[in-house]
Amino acid sequence: MRAITHFIHGNSAPLAGARVADVLNPSTGAVQAQVELANLAHLQKAVDSAREAQPAWAAMNPQRRARVMFRFKELIEQNMDDLAHLLSSEHGKVVADSKGDIQRGLEVVEFACGIPHLLKGEYTEGAGPGIDVYSMRQPLGIVAGITPFNFPAMIPLWMLAPAIACGNAFILKPSERDPSVPVRLAELALEAGLPEGILNVVHGDKEIVDAILDHPQIKAVSFVGSSDIANYVYGRGAQNGKRVQCMGGAKNHGIILPDADMDQAVADIIGAAYGSAGERCMALPVVTPVGEATAEALRAKLVTAIESLRVGISTDPDAHYGPVVTAQHKARIENYIQMAADEGAEIVVDGRGFSLQGYEEGFFLAPTLIDRVTPQMKSYQDEIFGPVLQILRANSFEEALSYPSQHQYGNGVAIFTRNGDYARKFASQVEVGMVGINVPIPVPVAYHSFGGWKRSGFGDLDQYGMDGVRFYTRTKKITQRWPSGGAVVDQSFVIPTMK
Ligand code: NAD
């Protein structure tokens, strides 16, 4: 059985006698490797390595750190095919989608190539007589990232690229379900010229997450995953005096106004609801048509579009989406479909019971469409995270606006309309962190920032963009005085002012 080990100080770092977890191939259902689960002793090795390496890395001028980022970007591009296949083999998403996963992370590496400019501080000459005030951004030291299974390239890169470029050492704790791509990324970073110890990868589960949250040398923790765990990580990390940002789950709505381009909206919603088997925090699992006529037209077109969807193994170039991540997750999704039926919703298309010939043990689910969903249903309130689209009908714009606004999650939302007035009002008033106007998956580009509201985001700084730079640095503010000769030095017991 292939063993997936930790990556510490530039080397594979096996841990004798460690607990292990199975790494599956979701297309076949087979166990393909075992990943070692770290304990505190192993984390300490990663911390010791990071402590040794970080001061020199921080002292290196930012242009030289940027050059490592440029080279890292080139190496990711050169290895795109291999990385995508590796990613698909553990996650299950189709290879083209894995390339998108890597590409969206690569764009954050591109952003980090501009770190000399991004780190520049502020300067005020002559804030008082002979007095100048300036600020500088300094790295925090050792920081850590804990990432989910659904974007094993993009989300580690969201975190590690700005963290490292800012001069920190970064300890990555990737998802134990698809841990190989994160290790491969760390190897490529080393090849790009990153000093040993600046990027360490430790695998594990709750035990190692708790050790990270309690470790006094780790100054900041970035987390992406489900909301209950995000909430827990936020609380425990903050309690220990760390800077913490935690992104959580989601239940994103797509609002369809009567004037929307219905064919375009359906094409967008189908891709956003079922792409990656719905295992995206920016998926669109709820569609809210406004008015009965809109709802009927939408439903008919959705049913037709679903009929043409192809579910396949992750290497099938014609498949629209692949299996879900584990058998347990598949069962959980099926339970939610049953729950929706029991709650009185109408199962229009039932994706349960689907079997792919030759891959009967794979974790496949055909697309499911559920109509007549209401806000009181638990199957609506919870995140399902599978290829399941729910129709929640609304009678007015105001009612449609209220649904995503009142939902416990507030990650993303989209509105489909040709009316700019409604679109502006919606963008302004909706209680959600990321809004798409005729854009189904409004993941902001790398030089903006990513983050949801309510139970989708804990902490005040978002991922990547300038918020990423702010999260991984602290600002030092300097007030300097160089009095010219002959200045009278007064003793003062009054708080200094510049008058
Ligand atoms: P998860 O919460 O199960 O795991 C996330 C990380 O937490 C993993 O590294 C895991 O090892 C660790 N972990 C698991 N259980 C833990 C525990 N009890 N204590 C401490 N750490 C623990 O999430 P997942 O299933 O890997 O990912 C899917 C979830 O992530 C979905 O809810 C999805 O919406 C969310 N997500 C959110 C965003 C976002 O930016 N808001 C992006 C991607 C995924």
Specify the CATH class of the largest domain. Answer: Alpha Beta
Taking pLDDT < 50 over at least 5 consecutive residues as the criterion, the unreliable ranges are: none
CATH topology of the largest domain: Aldehyde Dehydrogenase, Chain A, domain 1
Question: In terms of structural class, how would the helical and strand content be classed?
Answer: alpha/beta
Q: What is the number of helices?
A: 16
Q: Taking all residues together, what is the mean pLDDT?
A: 97
Rg, please? 25 Å
Report the CATH architecture of the largest domain: 3-Layer(aba) Sandwich
> What is the number of E strands?
23
* CATH homologous superfamily designation of the largest domain: Aldehyde Dehydrogenase, Chain A, domain 1
**Which strand-content bin applies to the residues?**
15-25%
State the end-to-end distance. 73 Å
Count of the separate structural domains: 2
Helix content: 25-40%
Bound molecules: nicotinamide-adenine-dinucleotide
Q: Largest beta sheet: what is the strand line-up?
A: 15-16-17-14-13-19-20
Overall geometry comes to: globular
Enzyme class: oxidoreductase
GO molecular function: oxidoreductase activity
Keywords: Oxidoreductase
Pfam family, one: Aldedh
